[in-house]
Each structure stands twice: as structure tokens, then as C-alpha cells.
């Protein structure tokens, strides 16, 4: 089975990041899709960079991106192996200019991510890995292996949550782990797939997502987290599956 080599994929992610930052550093216009989610020329530019580069690197592996057209969205239902890409995960963070957005690239096999890369252009940090392969972070200090740190009894739960989508259902779910007002839970608000990466490198232990996401939002970061020893599953514990007829994910929990 083909597995990516980071020396081949890192330049693609960084090129997409450069395309995003070229827009981020100047005034830009915001469009809105049918679901009212924002869209910018940075999303489109990063999409073009990644799709073109992946087609050159692995011409036999098709690419599904959040910005793919309807024809690709239909064709992907017949794919068992493909790249799943979110060229700019966290467009709301991009629009608000808080830096908490990422480039997500995942290799999918038979309905699950086997390898993933998450790159944060503003932070200039990159995470990559896959289940059974390990996980790593690349930053100004070099490349280091990362690993989750499961919760220890008696310690405060460190929970990551969405900056824009912290639903009442999520708060109700968290109540079973402790009382936030009593300091039994520490909530770290963060945008995009960075939430998975924080868990993967041991900075938090839990990320319940009881609000909408799409498959391209989670695949790459799930691979990184699983490579670091964590897990992502439905609320009933069953695995998160991909390439479903409905591209929306069900509610899930990511854990160290």
C-alpha cells in the first residue's frame, strides 16, 4: 500500500499555506456558500495548489477537496483510495484573522484515514502521522515525535472546544466529566483541526464535537491523533467512517 513521504507532502502543504497567507495579509472579500459558511479566494487558491500538486505526485489517486465540484463529489462514492483535502480548515478563523486555521491533507483507504498532515501557516507548525505509524510535529525547533497524555485520576480534565461551535449539547456532555465552574474542567477554545493536534501532542485530553462537521474537517487530524495514540469515535464508541453518501460527520469524541 502506498504511504506518503513527508518530504514530498510538506512542500505541498507549505505552498498551499503560502497561497493562503498571500491573501490573509491584504484586504479580501468573503463569499458565502449555500450552507452560509464563508468562502474566500484563499480557500480557492489553496485548493488549486494542492489538487494540482497531488495529481502530479500520485496521478492514480483521485482527490476530493472541500472546494471540488459536484462531479467529483458524485464520483468519490466509487473510490476506495483517495486524497481527502480541506485546503483551508477554519475559514471563520481566517476571516477573523486569529491565525487558528489549517491546511488538511489525508490519504484515505476503505473508509478511514491512514495518513494525515495538518499545517498551520500562521503558527508555522505542521503535524503528521497515522495509526500504527506514529506522529510528529515540525516547527522551528525541528521534527519531534509526539504522543498523547491520557487523563489521570484526580487531575483537572483539559478539554479543547470550538471557538465558534460550542453547543449546549457539548456543554451537557462535558458535565459528566466535572463542573467547569468548580475548576474540574479546563476548557481551551481553539479553531479548526488544531484541537486534535493539541490532544496529539499532550496538551489536552478530550474533544467532544456535538455540532456539525464534514469529513474533510476531521480526516487528516484524526490520522495524526491516532498516530499519537489517541482515538476518534462516535458517541457509542463505534469508529468514525468516511466516504459516506452524506459527507457530514455524526457527533464524535476525540480522546487522548
Automatic annotation (TrEMBL):
Its main location: membrane. It comes from Aeromonas lusitana. GO terms for molecular function: 3'(2'),5'-bisphosphate nucleotidase activity; magnesium ion binding. InterPro entries: CysQ, CysQ/Inositol_MonoPase, Inositol_monoP_metal-BS, Inositol_monophosphatase-like, Inositol_monophosphatase_CS. SUPFAM superfamilies: Carbohydrate phosphatase. Mg(2+) 1 binds at residues 66, 86, 88-89, 217. It is found in: Cell inner membrane. Keywords: Cell inner membrane, Cell membrane, Hydrolase, Magnesium, Membrane, Metal-binding. The keyword Ion transport does not apply. Its EC number is 3.1.3.7. CDD domains: CysQ. Mg(2+) 2 binds at residues 86, 89, 217. It comes from the Bacteria. GO terms for biological process: 3'-phosphoadenosine 5'-phosphosulfate metabolic process; phosphatidylinositol phosphate biosynthetic process; sulfate assimilation. Substrate binds at residues 66, 88-91, 217. Converts adenosine-3',5'-bisphosphate (PAP) to AMP. This is 3'(2'),5'-bisphosphate nucleotidase CysQ.
